[in-house]
Amino acid sequence: MAPRISPPSKVMASILRCKRPLKIRRQYATAAATAITPAASQAQMTRGEAPIARYPPSQPPSYKPPEFRKSQLLRQYASLLRSTPLMLLFQHNNLKSNEWSAIRRELSLALRKVDEARVAAGFPAEQLEEGVKIQIIQTGIFSAALKVVEFYKPETSPSTLDPTDPSTPSSATIPVFKSDGSHLTHTLSKAAHDATAKRSHALAPLLSGPLAVLTFPTVSPLHLKAALSILSPSPPQFPAPTRRANPGWHEPSVQSGMQKLLLLGARVEGKVFDVEGTKWVGGIDGGLEGLRGQLVAMLQNVGAGVTNTLESAAKSLYFTVEGRRIMLEDEEKGPSEEKS
Amino acid sequence: MISRFITEVSTVFNPFSPKAKTARLFLSFLPPNARQTMKITTKLLPRTSKDPSFVELKFSKSPLFFSTVLHEEGSNTALVEDGMQMKLDAEKLGVKGVIEEVDRHSRMLSRQEELTGN
Prior knowledge:
Chain B: Keywords: Mitochondrion, Ribonucleoprotein, Ribosomal protein. The structure holds two protein chains of two kinds. Chain A is of the alpha+beta class.
């Protein structure tokens, strides 16, 4: 039977020869008279920093093993936090699955109603209802992701030059890829971990116990108002839907689930709000359009006032001069009339 | 935690204080059907508030038991107004301490129930 291990090829043989002591190689060289290029040193061969990434661009080295669930959760939460400007935090006390599904159903119905009302009022369709999501979070990983998003702002964006790509200019400086990944700046990188390990966020005391977050893709006070009136109604500002308008909300599963949800706070555009602050955001009349309208009206009033003030001096001068002219004309007329 | 004998729970806490964790965790320890069997009120303090958080409990009545509880709980850190009410300082006790207090009282009530043959 033929041996399974094939004899070492020429290239392999030359590599093996290189590792031998210099003395022996010189003997070989003189004996066989073959030219052997001086090989790189052992350190260069094992730990050299090649300008070629040793990892696929979609899987850079991470501080914690990327195959762990918590690593992927951290990435997921960080991307959630970066993409949501408006987020409400709820404590959920032993909700059953049917209560969760009932609450989600009511929430999406109410938000869809707001969307339709906006379209009917002439605003462009946004379909915010599909982006609003309530989900249970793992508090420890969520706080880590929050710190990475808030406190870790890497200056250098990762280079996208690929030395193996033919379109890359030969004069371009190719970033050096270190094998330990110390130059990387992504969410799971060691740099992100080191920058945020000792910090603490204002939202940190809230992140304990059973927690769920309601995330909105944009800051929309109208949608927030609808969501608050479903999830934690407080009569004067956020009235619960009436039994006639929304009989589904008065079902026992929704009611018992709603009682067990407890609004704790909110994060609006990176700022932390308590319950009162959340209600204030939800209570902005007419949503962002209303706020813009108020601002425009205020600025217009200011402008009108300024033009009035500036005009008034010219007007008064005009009236004075005009009055004087009429007076002089009268004086001229007066004697002439007397003469004739 | 034995929550069978609790009839009323009222908690006050500021969620932005780290010490509110006890009260919040206590609420999460109540069973899913707690709202049907007991009356639960939660008051959230504003963010800047420094008021202490506490858990106030009422237990179902057991008239025979009145004097014993008063005697036993009187030496404890927990403030017991009468046999049926408990006001626990959530900041000092921690959630384990709160549950221990509740269980101690509930065990006595359940023993009482067994002895009276209900």
